[in-house]
Automatic annotation (TrEMBL):
Ca(2+) binds at N389, D391, E439, E444. Its cofactor is Ca(2+). SUPFAM superfamilies: Cysteine proteinases (SSF54001), E set domains (SSF81296), Transglutaminase, two C-terminal domains (SSF49309). It comes from Elachura formosa. Keywords: Acyltransferase, Calcium, Metal-binding, Transferase. Residues 260-352 form the Transglutaminase-like domain. One of its GO terms (molecular function) is protein-glutamine gamma-glutamyltransferase activity. The active site is at C268, H326, D349. This is protein-glutamine gamma-glutamyltransferase. The gene is Tgm3_0.
Length: 687
């Protein structure tokens, strides 16, 4: 090598095209492992003679930890390690094709070259990622359309609401924007695992199973000053309300800008969305999954206990809970530790719910293992299994005596309509049957028994479990709440309590009813309404009782989750109590987006957002938040003047799209009466 520093041409465009990394906006080479990339450098005399390349990563590179590779020019690509094949030479430059192994450690590498006995010359750095397009990689995904969706797609849809009323909102993952890749690399370098033993941590970074677990811990702030701080109190002073975010970019950028202080605040979908961004960015195929009526079994007995007082109020007793919905992740990779049938989708959960191995991390749990009740397999099988399979016990609790009485138990209450976004379309796909056998089928009960047995719950006497005679007692009446009319914020809430006498003699029933505003986790926040009635039901009679909760009654009490729990505890004279309950999620009013004209790359296009105030009071403090990868940089925030009753606002702003193709624009509108009205629109950008 001549004394001058060699200059390197990284062939950024060509390599990025071959490696599916064109979407990154970077001056640095970003490639995927197990696949060749080409570089040209000058300053070499007789390049075919004894050139030695050195690729190294991490703080103390070594061959033993596979973080250092030295390799010379060879005629063919090595099956095992790194290799370099000479493509062409001229008088003082050489074009070389470099290949990394399928199981190389991912991260930022330093590349240098040495000729003869001279000291190595630095060629620069490049970033190596997982390669789902390559059949030798642990994350290989044979279906190309799935690779496009689960690695390259920057827009997602997250499902929420409740099992009776599924809603959805868009999310901008933005894994290729700005500095996100560098932030993802810093997340790995700030984990507890790295801090305790950097050399070992970096050497494990070839393994998606290891990185998935580490990153599930790092996305929440517990233990390690990770990215997002959770808050389920209903009060979000000093930070942003979790439901106000529309993308991961702003969260990850804020974390970095603040000197890596946790960003306030997140709830389950925020943790899941940020983890999706990080894993897609690194090349691990990942999606968000929503489980409705999701169990949080804190004590590991595959049972969730809920307590109610005599008035029908849901009590905060015990750590178990059932959430209206919970969002986690699935990532796609092989499970060499468990065997081929457990490969494929793996469950990861970054929401800090329970500790695992002393820190708040969860997974990867093989989805196949969960379906088959193999809860003893790594990692966190019992917790995930309970989320979709726990039995529910409803108790009446008397705080004066401490006595609890079973109201009823249900094995079909938990987990419904497990949902994810379709590949290549903005639709919902139901994946419940990938998690469990049909509810109520013999196979489903067998799997549940198998799981209980593996956890040693079969043989243990459980003093808190209901007695057989309690479970076998049959109620005299049945009840349900029916919705009459629309479920919209700003409108009165109309329900019907339907009670039916199942017996052939008359029954007198005293009914205590309450309605509380809740969070989506069903945590009670404010009481909205209470009432009690006494009714007599003739033999086999069904009666309906209308309930009206006026908007002014609930308006001040509603949380930004817009959820209300209505319960009726029915005391049947001479019989057992019957609990009737319903969780209601109200819809926000609509907001409308129109793109005025054609959207072209690097040309201004005007967008109009319209909102009509549906209530008969003025709304103030109106703010519009807009974002969308390749449509605008960062998040645009617009203040809108107050709107009188029934008044329509129209706000216009300009976009300059930076890339062609189908892009998604996300809009979030908030005011003092309505929080976080979200919508999205697909914008087809042409060249």
């Amino acid at each position: 090598i001549a004394a001058t520093q060699p200059s390197t041409n990284w062939h950024l465009k060509e390599n990025a095209r071959e490696h599916h990394t064109s979407k990154f906006s970077s001056e640095e080479l970003i490639v995927r492992r197990g696949q060749a990339f080409t570089i040209t450098f000058n300053g070499t005399e007789r390049p075919e003679q004894n050139l030695i390349f050195i690729a190294e990563t991490g703080p103390k590179p070594s061959k033993a930890t596979k973080t250092l590779a030295t390799f010379g020019i060879s005629s063919t690509v090595s099956k095992e390690g790194w290799s370099a094949v000479l493509q062409s030479t001229s008088s003082n430059s050489a074009s070389i094709s470099i290949s990394s192994p399928h199981n190389a450690v991912i991260g930022r590498y330093r590349l240098s070259v040495q000729s003869g006995s001279s000291s190595p010359a630095n060629l620069g750095t490049f970033v190596l990622l997982f390669n789902p397009w390559s059949s030798g990689d642990d994350v290989f995904m044979p279906n190309k359309a799935e690779c496009e969706e689960y690695v390259l797609e920057e827009f997602g849809i997250i499902f929420a609401g409740n099992k009776n009323h599924i809603s959805s909102f868009g999310w901008n993952f933005g894994q290729f924007q700005g500095d996100i890749l560098n932030i993802c690399l810093s997340i790995m370098d700030r984990s507890l695992y790295y801090r305790q033993d950097p050399v070992t941590d970096v050497s494990h970074r070839h393994d998606p199973r290891y990185l998935g677990r580490v990153l599930s811990a790092m996305v929440n702030a517990n233990d390690d000053q990770g990215v997002v701080l959770g808050n389920w109190s209903g009060k979000y002073e000093g930070g942003k309300n979790p439901s106000s975010w529309t993308g991961s970019g702003e969260i990850l950028q804020s974390w970095k800008k603040s000197g890596f202080k946790p960003v306030k605040y997140g709830q389950c979908w925020v943790f899941a969305a940020v983890l999706t961004t990080v894993l897609r960015c690194l090349g691990i195929p990942t999606r968000t999954i929503t489980n409705f009526s999701s169990a949080h079994d804190a004590d590991g007995n595959l049972r969730v206990d809920e307590f109610y007082d005599a008035e029908g109020n849901h009590l905060e007793r015990g750590a178990d809970s059932v959430w209206n919905f919970h969002v986690w992740n699935e990532s796609w990779f092989t499970r060499n530790d468990l065997g081929p049938s457990y490969s494929g989708w793996q469950i990861l959960d970054a929401t800090p719910q329970e500790e695992s191995g002393g820190i708040y991390q969860c997974g990867p749990a093989s989805r196949h293992a969960i379906k088959e009740g193999e809860v003893d397999l790594d990692y966190d099988g019992p917790f995930v299994f309970a989320e979709v399979n726990a039995d529910c016990m409803y108790w009446n609790y008397d705080s004066a005596t401490g006595k609890k009485t079973l109201i009823f138990s249900k094995s079909t209450e938990i987990s419904d309509s497990i949902s994810t976004k379709a590949v290549g379309r903005d639709d919902r796909v139901d994946v419940t049957s990938d998690y469990k056998y049909e509810e109520g089928s013999a196979k489903e009960r067998d799997v549940f028994k198998k799981a209980r047995k593996k956890l040693g719950l079969e043989d243990k006497f459980d003093p808190t479990a209901p007695k057989r005679e309690e479970i076998e007692q049959k109620p005299d009446i049945s009840g349900k709440f029916k919705v009459a009319g629309s479920l919209e914020v700003g409108k009165d809430l109309n329900l019907l309590l339907v009670l039916e006498n199942l017996q052939s003699d008359a029954k007198t029933v005293n009914v205590n009813m309450t309605a509380w505003s809740t969070l989506y986790t069903r945590r009670r926040v404010n009481q909205i309404w209470k009432d009690s009635i006494s009714v007599t039901l003739a033999p086999k009679e069904e009666k309906q009782f209308p309930i009206k909760i006026k908007y002014p009654e609930y308006q001040q009490q509603l949380t930004t989750d817009k959820t209300i729990q209505v319960t009726a505890l029915c005391h049947v004279e001479g019989g057992i109590q019957v609990l009737v309950k319903r969780n209601i999620t109200l819809d926000n009013p609509a907001i409308d987006i129109r793109v005025l004209g054609e959207a072209k790359v690097n040309k201004e296009v005007v967008v109009e957002v319209a909102f009509t105030n549906p209530i008969d009071v003025e709304v103030k403090d109106c703010v519009l938040q807009v974002e969308g990868s390749d449509l605008l940089q960062g998040v645009l925030e617009l203040r809108i003047p107050p709107l009188k009753a029934s008044e329509k606002s129209s706000t216009k702003f300009k976009l300059i799209p930076s890339e062609a193709g189908p892009k998604h624009l996300l809009v979030n509108f908030s005011c003092d009466q309505f929080a976080d009205i979200k919508t999205f629109k697909m914008v087809n950008v042409i060249n």
